[in-house]
Amino acid sequence: MPQLPKPKIRAATVRSALGNPTPPPPPRMKVQTSRSAPKGSDTGISPAEMKERRRKFLITAGGLYGTFLVGAYYWISHVVAQGGPYEEAKPRDTTQTYEELAKQYDRIIGRDELFMGLSFWRKDVAKQATGDVLEVSCGTGRNVSYLNIPAVKSITFVDASEQMVEQTKEKFKDHYPKYQHAQFLTKKVEDLPLDIKYDTVFETFGLCSHEDPVYVLMHLQDLLKPGGKIVLLEHGRGTWDFVNRILDKSAASRAEVFGCRWNLDIGDIVRKSGLVIDKESRSHFGTTWTIIAHRAGDVISPEPKKRFFIW
Asked: Which end of the chain is more exposed for a tag (fewer CB within 10 A), N or C?
């Protein structure tokens, strides 16, 4: 007969038979699923070494940032600001320019204003509008949403561009559908009749677009009630020479595209108009001007002390 193969006997069976039990399997290791080591775990880095690494990182980052600022300043002041001849931006009628820009104005200007945070300035200026209010150079109604409408008895929006006035009207109706004391006029400021007076006249970034901004302010004074105020938010010459060189260099091309002369001396224009300045603030290297003024000879009641974002 053929012999059958002998069965294989496992070593564990032999050890068991000899009274030596099989050792238990090693315990399973817990897998740490968290991305960071648990609090108090040993990472191999001492607290002192970790603190030193952070210090070196901050020093390196600060050095790189400082180098960037110095390089940017040098490039702007020696390359951009002195890179070409200056051309004067001459006064002109900008009505047609804004008619053509009206539909895309918010999209274009919105990017710049978002970067500079100008919504804060617009909000503080618009909330100065109380009583019977006149907003001149209202544009596309970029101040509408910031109005303190319960403090506004009536409001009149004026702009030379019909397309922009229509956009202001749409925005106002959307924000205040029940308000009944608003009117919208397509006129130049110089053509506004003098028989209607206002408690507050305000304008944002509009003086740069007028052919004769001094005359415009003189005319606006005649539209004020006794004790009324004029509130301005404007862009113009700054307090830094290299910034003004940049504004001067690009003033002509800027005026050609956007209709504004952004290198005007706003403070000088206001004083030449005869207005008495009550408050004046400048931001963004001095290029953003905020002014509250009144007509010479008026007696102005002191305003309650308030804390504003820009004053």
From this structure: N
pLDDT in tens, 40-69: 445 577 888 888 888 888 888 877 876 665
Rounded CA separation 173/153 (Å): 16
Angle ∠(193,195,196) on CA atoms, nearest 5: 90
* Residue 148: half-sphere exposure toward Cβ, Cα within 13 Å: 13
Contact by Cβ (8 Å): 154, 132:
yes
Q: Tell me how far apart the alpha carbons of residues 266 and 16 are, in angstroms, rounded to a whole number.
A: 101
Render 257-272 in DSSP notation, one character per residue: HHS--TT--HHHHHHH
Q: Would you list the DSSP string of 129-194?
A: --EEEEEES-TTTTTGGG--GGGEEEEEEEES-HHHHHHHHHHHHHH-TT---EEEEE--GGG--S
Q: Which amino acid is residue 174, in one-letter code?
A: D
